[in-house]
Design a protein that fits this description.
- There is one protein chain.
- This protein has 386 residues and is mostly helical.
- It has 14 helices and no strands.
- The protein starts with a helix and ends in a 34-residue tail after the last helix.
Length: 386
């Protein structure tokens, strides 16, 4: 159902963005330039979030839904509320940009993370999950907003003194090259707050963290817009270099720490699981570090072919999901059906285990000879764990 809804909304949204770009730029060349420039930062930003999401990848349909929500639904919600504030309530342009837009846009974007937690609470199991969902929503929102800005610059709606390719390029330099991270950064504060509320055991923090996250997102957004609109070029550059870049660096550091923490959690939880007899202790080495996991799959492919590598990958993912949920159960932060989910992951692990070829205990990637390809999975080399 989600895939159908997302597909329909995405199709309508893509068509709407194309029509919007054509109408505002008032030319086929301007429309094409607008869409291309708006899309430039998207693969880089999405790739960065997918790189962070390697241990326990989020369901692809939810990741796509986050992008679609940001690019279509949140834009419609925020745009409608901004229009209402301007036309019905008479808000000035300055009030709209500094006070109204940060509030309605961040609430519209953050609503997706709230719905994910309500709908599928178990898939938000840590800080990184909240950052990824919120960040992807921000990427989608920035894409559509950039289409509006670039097409307006091309046609002269933003500044009649600078139009065409020159006007569009100048706006692209600021929004697409200097600050493509702005919207993902703002909304990440909401994702962080909601994730903390999910994983904490403190009742008061469950209510405080999301509110604090929303407040920080709105505050950062308002300060950014205000520096550009009110302070002029000097204040904008000071804000950029003294505030935005350090915040981006802090966000990258937080994401890197969260991913390192996932490796620590995985090691601890798998060690506990091995102590309970759920898997062989020697397997833990090939299930924790991403480099070792990949080396083990390469070994399986050379020993028993690509199907063995696929089976090992499925086994590794099942072990990872089991370990993270097992850790949440041990810490008392799992959803109500956490124990049942651990058992379900164990069943998946055991269903894949007969088809898994692990490297020998003494094998260390990438040093040492690899057994010849084509060796049967039912007859692993001596010392191989089955």
């Amino acid at each position: 159902m989600l895939i159908v809804v997302v597909s329909i909304v995405a199709a309508v949204g893509v068509l709407g963005v194309i029509v919007l770009a054509a109408m505002r730029s008032d030319s086929a060349q301007g429309s094409a330039l607008t869409l291309v420039l708006a899309a430039v930062p998207v693969p880089v930003l999405v790739g960065a979030y997918l790189w962070l999401d390697r241990y326990e990848p989020e369901p692809l349909r939810f990741l796509v839904a986050a992008l679609v929500w940001g690019a279509v639904i949140s834009v419609v919600i925020a745009g409608s509320l901004e229009w209402l504030a301007q036309d019905a309530l008479g808000a000035s342009q300055r009030t709209l940009v500094v006070a109204v837009a940060p509030v309605v846009e961040e609430l519209a974007k953050g609503l997706f993370v709230v719905l994910v937690v309500i709908w599928r609470r178990h898939i938000v199991g840590g800080i990184l999950d909240g950052l990824i969902y919120a960040g992807l929503v921000g990427v989608g929102f920035a894409f559509t907003e950039n289409v509006l800005y670039y097409s307006g610059a091309y046609s002269g709606l933003l500044d009649p003194a600078i139009t065409g390719v020159a006007g569009t390029s100048s706006v692209f330099f600021v929004r697409g090259l200097l600050s493509p991270f702005a919207h993902p950064l703002f909304t990440s504060a909401i994702g962080l707050g909601i994730a903390l509320a999910v994983i904490t055991k403190r009742r008061w923090w469950r209510y405080t963290a999301p509110v604090l996250g929303v407040a920080v997102a709105i505050g950062l957004h308002a300060a950014w817009n205000g520096s550009a609109l009110i302070g002029g070029a000097r204040v904008f550059l000071l804000t950029y270099f003294c505030a935005m870049l350090p915040l981006v660096a802090a966000g990258i550091g937080l994401a890197a720490w969260a991913r390192t923490r996932e490796q620590t959690i995985l090691t601890r939880a798998l060690g506990d699981a091995a102590g309970r007899g759920w898997l062989h202790p020697a397997e833990v080495h090939w299930l924790v570090r991403l480099g070792d996991r990949a080396a083990a799959r390469r070994f399986a492919a050379k020993v028993a072919g690509p199907d063995a590598a696929k089976a090992l990958h499925a086994y590794q993912q099942a072990c990872t999901e089991m370990a993270f949920m097992h850790d949440r159960v041990l810490r008392g932060t799992a959803p109500a059906d956490g124990i049942q989910r651990v058992h379900a992951h164990l069943e998946r692990m055991h269903s894949w285990r007969p088809f898994v070829v692990m490297p020998p205990v003494s094998w260390s990637a990438p040093v040492g000879p690899v057994p010849p390809s084509g060796m049967s999975r039912t007859a692993p080399p001596s010392g191989t764990l089955r």
